[in-house]
Amino acid sequence: MKAVKTLGQFIIEKQADFPYAKGELSRLLRDIGIAAKIVNREINKAGLADIIGEAGTTNIQGEGQKKLDVYANEQFIAALQSGGECCIVVSEENDEYIYIDSEISKNAKYIVAIDPLDGSSNIDVNVGVGTIFSIFRRKSVGGKATLEDVLQNGTEQIAAGYVIYGSSTMMVYTTGKGVNGFTLDPSIGEFCLSYPNMQIPADGYIYSINEGYYTHFPDGIKKYIKYCQVEDDKTRRPYTSRYTGSMVADLHRSLIKGGIFMYPITAQAPNGKLRLVYECNPMAFIVEQAGGKASNGYERILKLDVTELHQRSAIMIGSTNMVEKAEEMLACFSPQVTKRNFDGVVTIQ
Ligand SMILES: O=P(O)(O)OC[C@H]1O[C@](O)(COP(=O)(O)O)[C@@H](O)[C@@H]1O
Ligand SMILES: [Mg+2]
Ligand SMILES: [Mg+2]
């Protein structure tokens, strides 16, 4: 009988990879794991408990908050506050960053950016949702950490991960030394190593994009979708289309089976929809660590300048050969959408 390795055991074991580690990051990952279990408990009985439906409030993105958005946000912030390793939390559900001003956190050096509940539109219909997190080390020394400490580019991340609340609940994360996945075993209440050293296939046969916005996409994206749909045995096309409406679920599938997930600019979202700091950057770090690729169609996501907490970005991410093909189509058919448009000038062809 193969011994299970719990997340806690794995984290401690991997601490040896970081000679100067004092266990702070380990404890921070532990705290995130604890909050994920609490949120998982509520999600699993969402239909029974008064936890589905609208919270009646709106976040800074102008989106109506779901009760589970608010609940998950509270649980992760509480776990990070009581854990003592986090000095600032940036959350999709909070307009401003939260400075953790407690005795236990006075020497904390980590900043956590979080999307507490990803795929909110799927909560009430029992489709897979997730949590996404990104961890940075503060740059400033002494005193209160500042906005500068928060607005770091994706390349500065020291860890990132997601939790998927699906047919099983998993936590997948990287600390820059590969990607590992852990499945929650409800009978022992522990995340157990189930997907060691995850590698995304260089090629995949599944594309994932909300084709409902097709007419609003740049020409290059339209051409790539057509490319995916053309009959060609040599390249196993047409590819299959899969889109759940939860970035975490669509990317988890791509990580395991190969594939590409895209959320380009549209007329409605001229800078893209998904948020750079707590959606695009952490998922890009994970996918790159698993051997894949992530860009906004022109530039590496992790290299994009972070200037605002809730900044948006276009994204195409997944199997390297598929992302490069899509980039090729954009460069060819939507060149003028290159850099200039991402500075806000939009001309949809
Ligand atoms: O409904 P759309 O426009 O396709 O958007 C779906 C996308 O929006 C998101 O739901 C945004 O995330 P949140 O649910 O955290 O706001 C992604 O998970 C998903 O990929
Ligand atoms: Mg999200
Ligand atoms: Mg969310």
Automatic annotation (TrEMBL):
Cellular compartments per GO CC: cytosol
Pathway: Carbohydrate biosynthesis; Calvin cycle
UniProt catalytic activity: beta-D-fructose 1,6-bisphosphate + H2O = beta-D-fructose 6-phosphate + phosphate
First-listed, main subcellular location of the protein, grouped into a coarse class: cytoplasm
Keyword annotations from UniProtKB, A to Z: Carbohydrate metabolism, Cytoplasm, Hydrolase, Magnesium, Metal-binding
Occurrences of domain Fructose-1-6-bisphosphatase class 1 C-terminal (ranges): 200-330
Cofactor comment: Binds 2 magnesium ions per subunit.
Binding site residues for substrate: 118-121, 210, 243, 273
Sequence positions that bind Mg(2+) 1: 92, 115, 117
Binding site for Mg(2+) 2: 115, 118, 279
EC primary class: hydrolase
Complex formation: Homotetramer.
Protein name, per record: Fructose-1,6-bisphosphatase class 1
Phylogenetic classification of the source organism: Bacteria, Pseudomonadati, Bacteroidota, Sphingobacteriia, Sphingobacteriales
Gene that produces this protein: fbp
